[in-house]
Amino acid sequence: MASFVRAGALAAAALLSAGAAAGCGSGSPDAGSPPSASSTPASPSKASPSKTSPSKTSPSKDMGGSGEGGAQPALPAALTGQQLDWKRCAAPRRARGSGAQAPGSQWQCATLTAPLDYSKPDGETMGIALIRSKATDSDRRLGSLLFNFGGPGGSGVAGLPGFGTAFTALHERYDLVSFDPRGVAESSAVVCQDDRQADASFLLDSTPDTPAEEKAYLDDSAAFGAGCLKRSGKVLPYVGTSSAARDMDLIRQVLGDKKLNYFGFSYGTELGGTYAHLFPKNVGRMALDAVVDPSADFVHHSRNQTLGFQRALDNYFKSTGTTPAAGTARVARLLDRLDKKRLTARSGRPLTQSLAVTGILQTLYGEDSWPMLTRGLREAENGDGTTLLALAETYNNRDQEGHYSTDHHAQRAISCADAKGRVSGAEVRKKHLADFKKVSPVFGPYLAWDLAGWCASWPVDGEHETPEVGARGADPVLVVGGKGDPATPYEGSLRMVDELGKGVGVQITYEGEGHGAYLTGNSCIARAVNPYFLDGKVPADGTTCS
């Protein structure tokens, strides 16, 4: 099974920049080590759907952005007026594994009750896990600031405490709040396979060269979807982005905010754009950083990432004094060797061609990770797969005990609930493989075949060809695009500005490497974003930071 390139691996990139992945493959893409709790924390109430499983396998149809939730029925007062029971947070073991630590005492957790199906707001419900830390200057508090760090499939409950210090200036006047989107971690996590099955899937050849390899790859992909239906069929039709956006508006109401203040990164930009489309009148101060292209369908999204990662690889080789052509050819030769014969890591586990590509991808999310790529390539060329395997297993969220998080289960479930795109193996061979390989000899085959494997035989219909983000009448939204972003190439930010509508999107350009701008600590980006959130000062459209 290939692993569709995450639109948001900000936490994993931060982990690598700290050197935590060096030779270990922790499987915990955390942004730092939150402090241990001094006492046993309380767990949030179990966030699972109520009542019986529906037989429906199609998501609710979005009726468009009217400022009234896309013409969905009004929510009952029992939901909009609910009181949250905030308690000390437990360790996020579902998202981070058995070694996870609870965040410090300044963090509180609760569970929001939301409709399972927003077209039936009086029907079954599910729990949405929340985390918050109150504003440090309560006398000057502006309200809540909601975060999503990407994925899809990333846990905000696990992720926000690790990023907390990056938002110190905003924390003074805002309660910092995040959540596990539906289908993720503590919000009825989608589960599709066990650890043994995941190990077998990740060892398959995800760039098949023979009919037998292709059959094994596509059979495994179909089995993954069947496993999701068997284990998580109750929630599977309702984990799409439009439902998560409606959860965000319910969070806004329950927290008592007149408008939603929101900071979305990577996939979180698609989520934010969807919210703005559904609830334009409820948009407060919103910033979107590392922007998913809203005009790209299922195929073009993957092609965009193929181009973005090849650009990042080119820039890496330029930094070493190697021409991109020579460097790419070097990596292609290594991958060809691995396709014929696997390497072994010092742990005894194998490094396959597909895992090597994943490891290389992992290092390209941030320039600080490039030394790991240098080390991994050098070792692999000398017959040692240790570093590239550690990088791949960090990306795949496999810990040292062989346990996987369910992030990639949720990622796939959300992506396939959103996108209508379904591509066969024959279509890959006839229409896409040569084109993707031309864009990138390294990443093209991997991402072209991922088109066929990702939503193969998926049991839920996709909602749209491309997400709707038009938000006429919304307050200004900051859109931050990075020229060196591999996972969400810069062009996507330009298209987001266009599609948000005239007078809504405000373009900010970051002329740097890596996935996302604000979390790099760039002072120019901070000067554009922080006064906007704190004082409502909208930066000039076209602001550029280097």
Describe this structure in words.
By secondary structure, the chain is of the alpha/beta class. Helices cover 40% and strands 12% of the residues. It has helices at 10-17, 77-80, 93-96, 156-163, 168-171, 195-202, 211-232, 241-255, 267-278, 298-319, 324-340, 353-363, 370-381, 386-395, 407-418, 425-439, 444-454, 491-500, 523-535, and strands at 87-88, 108-115, 125-133, 143-148, 174-179, 260-265, 283-289, 343-344, 350-351, 477-484, 505-513, 543-545. The strands form two sheets. Strands 1-2-3-5-4-6-7-10-11-12 form a ten-stranded mixed sheet, with helices on both faces. Strand 10 (477-484), helix 18 and strand 11 form a beta-alpha-beta unit. Helix 10 (298-319) runs antiparallel to helix 17 (444-454). Residues 11-48 and 50-65 have low confidence and may be disordered.
- What proportion strand? 5-15%
Shape: globular
Range of helix content: 25-40%
Tally of helical runs = 19
Nutshell version of this structure?
Helices cover 40% and strands 12% of the residues. It is built from 19 helices and twelve strands.
Strand-helix topology:
Layout: H1 10-17, H2 77-80, E1 87-88, H3 93-96, E2 108-115, E3 125-133, E4 143-148, H4 156-163, H5 168-171, E5 174-179, H6 195-202, H7 211-232, H8 241-255, E6 260-265, H9 267-278, E7 283-289, H10 298-319, H11 324-340, E8 343-344, E9 350-351, H12 353-363, H13 370-381, H14 386-395, H15 407-418, H16 425-439, H17 444-454, E10 477-484, H18 491-500, E11 505-513, H19 523-535, E12 543-545
Parallel strand pairs: 4-5, 4-6, 6-7, 7-10, 10-11, 11-12
Antiparallel strand pairs: 1-2, 2-3, 3-5, 8-9
